[in-house]
Every structure is written in C-alpha cells, then in structure tokens.
Design a protein that fits this description.
By secondary structure, the chain is of the alpha+beta class. The protein has one domain: CBS-domain (Roll). A three-stranded mixed beta sheet has the order 1-2-3. Helix 4 packs across helix 5.
Length: 143
Amino acid sequence: MTVAWIMKEKGRTVFSVLPTTSLNDAVTMLATRRIGAVVVADENHQIVGIVSERDIVRTLATQGPGALEESVGEHMTRPVKTCTEQHSIDWVMTEMTEHRFRHMPVTEQGRLAGIISIGDVVKFKIAAAQSEADQLRQYFVAG
C-alpha cells in the first residue's frame, strides 16, 4: 500500500507558514488547528523546513519565552524528509521510526501536496490488519 491511500482518506489539506512568520504565530496556528506541526514553505510552495511542537518546546527550554518573537525560520527543522504518494506506507513508517519524527510532508513534482503523521500511518495499518483478519474469518467460515 502507498501513501496515496492515506491521502485519499485524509485529504490534501495542509497548513504552512512563511519562514518570516513569528514563532508565536506558529504556536497559535498549532493550537487553533489542533495540529502537531506546520510546514514552512516559501511563496512558491517549496518546502524549506517544518516546525513541530517538539521544536517549540526545545526552543523555549533553551532560549525562554522571548524566542516566541523570533521567526519560524530561525527554529525550524531542516532539511525536511518528504515522501510522494507513490512511497510505500512501510517505507514512511520506517523513516519516521528511524529518524524519530512524527510528520512527513507529501510532495508532488517537488511542491507541497499534503502531510501525513505517524497517527495516520498507524490508523491505516490497524485498518489493514482488521480487514485482513475479517477476510480470514470469512474464508474459514465459508470453507
């Protein structure tokens, strides 16, 4: 199965900010949208970074609340690991696990097309396992 399956279910809505956006405005977006990360993209929708809750907590711990007035570009994670809809879900899960991140932007022809989280991947894997178990039950009951 590929990322396209998750995108079909989840949709392509993705929130992004410019690198010049204040960290405080990014925090507000995360809280109001109830999301864990926001993609940092330029005016041409080219991904230049990502800011997650973890990035913000680390920044506040080391620099204090004054850092909230600084730009997202100063505190974003980069480079950003991305995938396309053609990548396998197993590949995405492996990358997220090995590199210890929870959000991966999806690109199409090099431009931002969506985002998936580890929660999306786990939800898909559980649904696939349940479907397989149901099919096996039906096979044995019918047989």
